[in-house]
Design brief:
Layout: H1 3-12, H2 16-25, E1 30-31, H3 32-36, H4 43-55, E2 59-64, E3 67-72, H5 74-88, H6 91-96, E4 97-100, E5 106-108
Antiparallel strand pairs: 1-3, 2-3, 4-5
């Protein structure tokens, strides 16, 4: 993952509805009709949000008859998390922090 890809994902996640959609999809694939049940938005508005999530690679789309199904693209999500972890645990952090945990969380020196 490069900086441009990470910036696209950050921009996509900059909307609370899109963050909530990603949270919903952590439980597995959902059709648009099921996602809509969780929001007070129209189908075209949902399509707009899903297009943004798909364009940055966070969401995969599958059509079956008249229904569209969405699922998280775990490969992209993991690559994004790894990219962010490198920002948290880079060389400059090691001068100020004792170490990074396995989860990539910086331990603070007191």
């Amino acid at each position: 993952m490069n900086a441009a890809d990470a910036a696209m994902i950050c921009k996509a996640l900059g909307d609370p509805i899109r963050i909530r959609i990603v949270e919903l999809l952590t439980d597995g694939e959902l059709c648009a009709c099921r996602i809509l049940e969780h929001f007070q938005i129209t189908q075209p508005t949902l399509s707009h949000h899903m297009k943004i999530l798909a364009e940055c690679g966070l969401v995969r789309t599958r059509k079956e008859w008249k229904n569209t199904y969405y699922a998280l693209n775990c490969d992209t999500l993991i690559a994004f998390r790894n990219y962010i972890d490198r920002l948290n645990c880079g060389p400059s952090c090691s001068q100020k922090a004792a170490a990074c945990s396995d989860a990539g969380i910086r331990k603070k020196n007191k």
